[in-house]
Amino acid sequence: MLTRLQVQGFKNLLDVDVEFGPFTCIAGANGMGKSNLFDAIEFLSYLATDSLTEAALRVRGLAGSKGGDPRDLFWDGYREHEHRIKIAAEMIVPAEVEDELGERARPAATYLRYEVLLSYESSRGEHSVGRLHLLREDLRQIPNARARLAFPAAAAFLDTVLIGEDRDRVFLSTDGGSGNERLINVHDHRNRVEKSRPAGRVVRTVLSTKITADDPTLLAARNEMRSWRRLALEPSALRTPDGTTGAESLATNGRHLPATLYRVAHGRDWSVEPDRVYARVAGRLSDLSGVAVEDLTVEFDEARELFTLFLRERGGLRLPARALSEGTLRFLALCVLLEDAEFTGLICMEEPENGIHPANLPAMVQLVRDLAVDPTDRPSDDNPFRQVIINTHSPGVVQLCDPGDLLLADLRLKAAPAGEAARALSLLPYRQSWRAKRGKPAFSMADVVAYLAEPPEAKLRLPPGLTA
């Protein structure tokens, strides 16, 4: 779970410091840079698995494209000045990890702070992009965890997710001068430097190299960051049947929906009652007005070796997934994720209201809210450790969110790297919420009037005395 993110120099995030709870809705007009925050989270996730350059080019799917350039990630990246990105993430990591060989281990602590500092060096060649340099990489335990964790949570929740002695442990650190003199250190369980790597020579983060349980805390941080994903459900992917050799987990674009539901319904050990799972998904899908669901199921065609999802309406009409509307498919995919206890981590979603009728906005907002872990109870298979961040410019979505879950996107003057003032993204909490800090900017109801009032030139209005 990502609990705090600090970003400097990434796109129009000149100086962003924001805290997150299980569910967060970011509201703001088009062009504010709300998606850039998701890009920063996505970039961190890629830094946990890929080389520095690959991570930069994967943001928004640029890897392998001819137009990709690492400078796209930097503030004013194509002007001649010093280019630096600093990102710090505070996170709660899993209390147990399993490496790719199946070995299990427990991290020394589960509340961690990870920091990276990157720079850009122009290419000497005429026809090639430059490269990124890792200037700093740190991973430390956050002491006094219960006091530091800001969002409201029950003791049972905290007892489950905050594991480890309350100490100031260091797992990765950086010291030395500049260039090849700078060292990234890996520490042992006594905080002593176990090994060091010259920062100037690395082409990827040290964290991304930790793939075994020999360093369980580093592996836990890596696995947690890998679980931060941007969900962009595409109708063509959602409509595609699955073969027998494909993945059994929903991809970020919606692929493998039938195989995922089949695996969730039948269980890996065949201990689940399929009819109950199908009935719960169908019941949740029935929250959409205009969708009269009698039942749904995933059927296997032995001749073609394909799994296909079918929905039967109350009138008896039987429809495959490819015949459903885009909005219905997106809602259905989230219903399936709600049932999938194996789908954990952070989910970022852009404008989940797209394709949803206004009358169905309450059902959609409640569904994405229910995807997030309930901090009033301990995480379990019935309360998966998931986190959800959405962004929107829809008045309907804003009105349906608890003010404490809202962040208001705004453009404010901040100091740019060259010293000049520039308009950059700020994320403001509601002034009476747990995120608000004394002396820090916050928003009041007066700042969100545009989301609460009808348009001034509305041609259709409810008659006086009649409410929706």
Automatic annotation (TrEMBL):
Keyword Transcription regulation on entry: no
InterPro entries in alphabetical order: ATPase_AAA_core, P-loop_NTPase
Tree of life domain: Bacteria
Q: Which residues form a coiled coil?
A: none
Q: Does the keyword DNA damage apply?
A: yes
The alphabetical list of record keywords is: DNA damage, SOS response
Domain (ATPase AAA-type core): give its ranges: 23-398
Indicate what this protein is called per its UniProt record. Answer: AAA family ATPase
